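Quick one - inputs below.
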Amino acid sequence: MKYMLLIYVDEGGFQRLPKDEAERGLAAYQSYTEALTQAGVRVASDRLQPVASATTVRVANGKTNVLNGPYAETREQLGGFYMIDVPDLDAALSWAARCPGASHGVVEVRPIWTM
Amino acid sequence: MTAQEGDQNARDAAERAARQSYGKLVAFLAHRMRDVAAAEDALAEAFAAALTDWPVQGVPDRPEAWLLTVARRKAIDGERRRRRGDDAAGHLRLVAEELAEHAAGAKEAQIPDHRLALIFACAHPAIDERIRAPLILQTVLGFDAATIASAFLVAPAAMAQRLVRAKTKIREAGIPLRVPEQGELRDRLEPVLEAIYAAFSEGWSDPAGTETRRRNLADEAIWLGRLVTALLPDEPEALGLLALMLFAEARRGARRDAAGNYVPLGEQDPELWNARLIDEAETALLRASRNGAVGRYQLEAAVQSAHVVRRRTGRADWAAIVRLYEALMALTGSPVVAINRAVAIAEADGPEAGLALLDATGEDARLKEYQPYWAARAELLRRAGDVAGAGEAYRLAIGLEADPAVRDFLQQRRARLNAPTSF
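Output:
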């Protein structure tokens, strides 16, 4: 079954980190990605650029509304994702717990819709 | 045999099969299909088929096997109807089994027991905690949504909807029907035990078990407790929970007098306690203590044990009870435990000592609407000679009590405050 691991973090926190800690943080993600790949469960993954770069598009009444900023103004924002293919929810949760994002933010695990 | 007798025979046989094997059949099918709702549907259809088929063909030698075979076929049909692309594998699995069994001539084989796996799936962290106990009652014990709803004081439509949502989640999110690995077992066991205890507590609010139409939840919870300890014989907290429930259940006959009046624990006649259940509880507690991992259920069961020792010594072991509540406080920090501890200390050191602790606990806002807090306060104030304070506390306790028998009891106590000579 395919699952999305959606990583929500307070990006301000990451930006405020001293350089060596930030490097360790990134290295942790690299190791995690490597582990998923080695296990043969990684389908896709990417890091998103900060919310300052986000633009929201909404079409209503035939009009396209383009707004500056993310969908929701929350402290934690979507920072990246992993798509994995594992046998069941427990396996997905187990991987989510290992994701560095789970320690300094929140990881939401959602099954992918199958047609 | 007349057609009517045949009908009745079939119905009786079907009911027997349901009582003995419903949970096992659902668990087995759910395990195969990875879908609890579909398993329930398939089994329901199989039972319906039994009620039309058995009166005509006669009751089969092995009703459970018959039901399982038919349910599997219904399940395959169901999957085809639903045509979910992702579950082609599940479909094929069922068909393959069907063929294999047919080829093997369906020898007498025990239907594997997957009930524990089903219970763990129902109590999975991904399932809304309010629905775990109801889900177990429905899937493993075959309760209908309306009965469960009334037990938990929830509107039937809301309960039915939540149950459906939970089972959908099991399927859609891929919650496994599997007993967790040793390393995770203790953590995952906690919500299972909580769910069983929740069911037991609901059953406990029907003290005389007089609502027979609504099945006795306490009995069913104990049955589940026995099942879990049978399947996990060394789990100390499972044994502790079973012991706790058995101690409580043992006293059911003494909780009300012949006239239906409430009898508090301290005034119950030990002769009316069920000695066999107490013995079973003591045995379970002893087995638990051998595993060395103390937990809240074992501690609560030990408190019960210290109360029922009265049957031998004439007096509860209050010193032990105080120590046990100290340990429970350290473990849980629960205000409810604090109240019980205060009452125990009052027994050992006098009402003022108990009241001092109650005052400290009373800071917790949650207790303002908690009947036992006011009842305990009233009792201790009475003993300390504060008639006005006791009267006020009884008034609050009475207003917060749902059980009419307990209300009557409290009202009598309050009335006696103003006529002390009639004690």
